[in-house]
Design brief:
It is a single chain. By secondary structure, the chain is α/β, with parallel strands linked by helices. The protein is built from 15 helices and 15 strands. Strands 1, 2, 3, 4, 5, 8, 9, 10, 11, 14 and 15 form an eleven-stranded mixed beta sheet that branches. Helix 9 links the parallel strand 9 (325-335) and strand 10 (356-362).
């Protein structure tokens, strides 16, 4: 076949060919290629728009009032030595309280906008928390710390807590008048009347092991959006991954997590497990008392003084908080190790240092020392599903039975219930940030938002009982489950059922989410 003549412009030149692409760069539309491309695009998107990797933002609060937040770190008049144990390496005191740090969550006025940036869920610098987590995992070294910092910063470093920072405390009476929905809600109106008369109920909350004051922000924020004031403590007893210690006029210090091998007695002898746990719980109790002291100062009209001493530079409106908090009858609460600490804070109470008229105990610790049974105020004990379903021996007997006996033997009205479908972290922020991962790893079956909502609702019912003596909703039910019943777990009760499949009658919605083990009814 005759070949066509070449174009005159290409005569004497090599024939043109398409540019050769190296095989490694040639797209092959396999599922692996598509998945990797999508992940790469997602990472780039998160980087450009400052979104956290593979993590949800914290949702807004659902109550009728916007939420404010203030970080408070104030010094003690003089350091408070709780235990003489010292660090082996530096010989510094391990259990001396010098400052107390907590975040206040509270209702604020509608349409208030702060000029300050919102608090980060992981406080800056992220490296402090990352190194603390590495210490918990026993992999603490320079390389791992750098990797942990980058990973933590990429996953949750940009997460912000949705509360407005350093804004005024709300006038709830005015807020109810201006809000038609709140004005038409009889429960809300009664609650606001009670708050106007006695002051905002104040809850002092103690966090669990390997946690900090930022691990329970949504639980606290939800209560604040319903009119309550919550103080989330940050403990420096070795249980917090890493805490930045600030004091006006002094260099910033950090205190990382530590454990039994890191400390010794003043005479150089290793501590036993019980001695270490006792020192930690006593340290927590001291921090709880110091937080109470600061809150009382604010309520007594010394808010300006607290603001000036606050190394975090927040609390400008404290001068207007005089007489607006109920600091004579506060509530102590805690989760896991913090629940054990909250129970200890009830010893011999109520007292001026610990004026607690009630306690909210969430998953009391199974390895955080003995549980105090010297309790003279109403308590609400809530077990997550995983806490009740997994039998644990606790000082020679079942942990569940120990908790049940403490609640039953309390002379004041008290409750013990299991939240069905939940797991140990369900009251924390973690499931909201990583819902699928947490459900998969912890076995939680309930929707993460519904799980936390159930904790908030039963807490508010208990707070209402403490204020009025009225038992409502779950607290008005009988103890139908003396023991945890695996066969009546989450998902067994469905809308429309009666008390059993053969009998008719009213279906109680609470049975879908709860088993009540002890009730004063």
């Amino acid at each position: 076949m005759m070949q066509p003549y070449p174009d005159a412009s290409t005569m004497g030149k090599a024939p043109l060919t398409a540019p050769r692409v190296p095989p490694v760069l040639r797209p092959i539309l396999t599922w692996r290629y598509v998945v990797c491309s999508l992940i790469a695009a997602y990472v780039v998107y998160c980087y450009i728009f400052s979104k956290p990797l593979f993590t949800h933002q914290l949702p807004n609060y659902s109550g009728p009032y916007p939420v404010g937040a203030v970080d408070i770190e104030t010094p003690l008049a003089s350091p408070r030595l709780v235990d003489t144990a010292r660090f082996k390496e530096t010989k510094e005191k391990a259990f001396e309280v010098d400052t107390v740090l907590f975040t206040l969550y509270y209702p604020t006025a509608q349409n208030v906008t702060s000029h300050k940036p919102k608090h980060h869920w992981i406080p800056k610098p992220v490296s402090v928390t990352a190194e603390g987590y590495a210490k918990f995992a026993h992999i603490n070294n320079f390389v791992v710390n750098k990797l942990m910092t980058r990973a933590l910063d990429g996953l949750v470093g940009s997460i912000e807590i949705p509360a407005q920072v350093d804004v005024p405390l709300a006038d709830l009476a005015e807020a109810v008048v201006l809000d038609p929905d709140a004005r038409d809600d009889d429960k809300e109106v009664k609650k606001v009347i009670q708050i106007v008369k006695s002051g905002h109920p104040v809850i002092v909350f103690s966090h669990g092991m390997a946690s900090s004051r930022t691990d329970y922000t949504h639980y606290a924020g939800e209560l604040a959006s319903r009119g309550y004031v919550v103080a989330l403590l940050e403990h420096r007893d070795g249980s917090c991954p890493g805490s930045v210690v600030m004091k006006n006029g002094e260099p910033v210090k950090t205190k990382l997590a530590f454990d039994i091998p890191d400390v010794e007695s003043a005479s150089g002898i290793d501590l036993t497990v019980d001695e270490f746990k006792r020192a930690q719980l006593d340290f927590r109790e001291a921090e709880i008392e110091e937080a109470v002291r600061v809150l009382k100062l604010i309520n007594e009209g010394h808010g300006e003084e607290v603001f000036k001493k606050n190394a975090r530079g927040e609390g400008a409106d404290f001068k207007n908080w005089k007489g607006r908090l109920n600091t004579d009858e506060m509530i102590v609460a805690g989760h896991s190790y913090g629940a054990t600490g909250a129970m200890q804070a009830l010893r011999g109470g109520p007292s001026p240092e610990r004026p607690f008229k009630g306690a909210i105990i969430l998953d009391p610790g199974k390895s955080s020392g003995r549980l105090n049974d010297d309790i003279r105020v109403p308590v609400l004990v809530v077990h997550s599903n995983s806490w009740s379903s997994k039998s644990s021996i606790f000082y020679g007997r079942a942990h569940f039975d120990t908790v049940k006996d403490i609640v039953e033997n309390n002379v004041m009205p008290s409750w013990f219930a299991t939240s069905l479908g939940t797991s140990h972290p369900s009251v924390t922020d973690a499931p909201l940030l990583e819902p699928w991962l947490l459900s998969w790893t912890t076995g939680a079956r309930i929707n993460v938002y519904e799980g936390l909502r159930q904790y908030v609702h039963v807490t508010e019912d208990f707070l209402w009982f403490l204020s009025t003596g009225e038992k409502r909703d779950l607290l008005n039910e009988d103890a139908e489950y003396p023991e945890y019943d695996q066969g009546s777990g989450f998902g067994v009760w469905q809308p429309g059922q009666g008390d059993n499949e053969s009998a008719g009658g009213v279906w109680w919605d609470w049975k879908r989410y709860w088993q009540v083990h002890v009730s004063p009814n």
